[in-house]
Specification:
Blueprint: H1 12-19, H2 24-30, H3 35-41, H4 44-55, H5 68-78, E1 94-99, E2 105-110, E3 114-119, E4 124-130, H6 131-134, E5 137-145, E6 151-158, E7 163-170, E8 176-183, E9 191-192, E10 197-199, E11 203-205, H7 210-222
Antiparallel strand pairs: 1-2, 2-3, 3-4, 5-6, 6-7, 7-8, 9-10, 10-11
Helix pairs in contact: 1-3, 4-5
């Protein structure tokens, strides 16, 4: 004998068809009714559609979380809600925009290995450089600030096709200085280990002068077979 159909035990597919007609706000409200309703509410078919509709989302799989519902909520809760500033003096084709961990600075990279560094609040232009001219780069592939906001690492492709990284410091007055460069292959595969070390196949220390660092760097490269990967 079939059980009586009620709102508490409505079949999954039937409730899913009802949910298809609701907005994402109404879906969230329905999810608070019961465990069964919440389970159906999280169906990926529903939230994949809302991701595409609300955020012009084009990815086939969630990028940040493990489900489409959680991905939608991540964007809903974490994207900027107010226009803070408009940067009008950047004339290059924008490729990347990276914010420092504490939000004190941000860096924008453009086509042709250009990059600019800005202070966030108040908005202030600090530095502009073309690595095509100074380091013979074709393109900047990635950028990453150190955990304490004091340095920024950029990786890119040189004109000969090899990979390289470059590190710049940002002093308390906002002056940006070149520290060092190092081979990085494949290009873009590098990250900070802490404020003084980075990982790109080997670990390098930044606590000494630039000349000493470059000399030490040559020794590290010569000893690559015995150094820590």
């Amino acid at each position: 004998m079939l059980p009586d159909l009620s709102w508490d035990n409505i079949p999954y597919e039937l409730l899913l068809n009802v949910y298809r007609e609701l907005s994402y706000r109404d879906l969230v409200s329905c999810g608070a009714v019961s465990v069964h309703w919440r389970h159906v509410m999280r169906d990926k078919i529903l939230w994949k559609r809302h991701l595409k509709g609300v955020y012009a989302w084009w990815n086939w799989e969630p990028l940040v979380t493990t489900s489409y519902y959680d991905e939608f909520m991540f964007f809903k809760r974490n994207i900027p809600k107010f226009l803070k500033e408009v940067v009008n003096d950047y004339d290059y084709d924008l490729r990347h925009c990276i914010f420092s961990p504490f939000g004190a600075f941000f860096l924008v990279c453009g086509k042709g290995a250009h990059f600019c560094v800005y202070r966030s609040d108040p908005l202030e232009f600090l530095h502009e450089r073309c690595l095509k001219d100074s380091l013979s780069w074709q393109e900047i592939t990635t950028a990453q600030f150190s955990p304490d906001d004091s340095k920024v690492m950029l990786t890119g492709v040189r004109q000969d096709g090899s990979g390289e990284l470059a590190v710049f410091s940002i002093d308390p007055t906002g002056e940006v200085h070149f520290i060092c460069r190092s081979p990085c292959s494949p290009p873009g595969v590098a990250c900070w280990f802490d404020n003084d070390y980075l990982i790109c196949g080997e670990i390098y220390q930044f606590r000494f002068r630039q000349v000493s660092f470059l000399n030490r760097l040559m020794n590290l490269l010569a000893e690559a077979t015995t150094s820590l990967l």
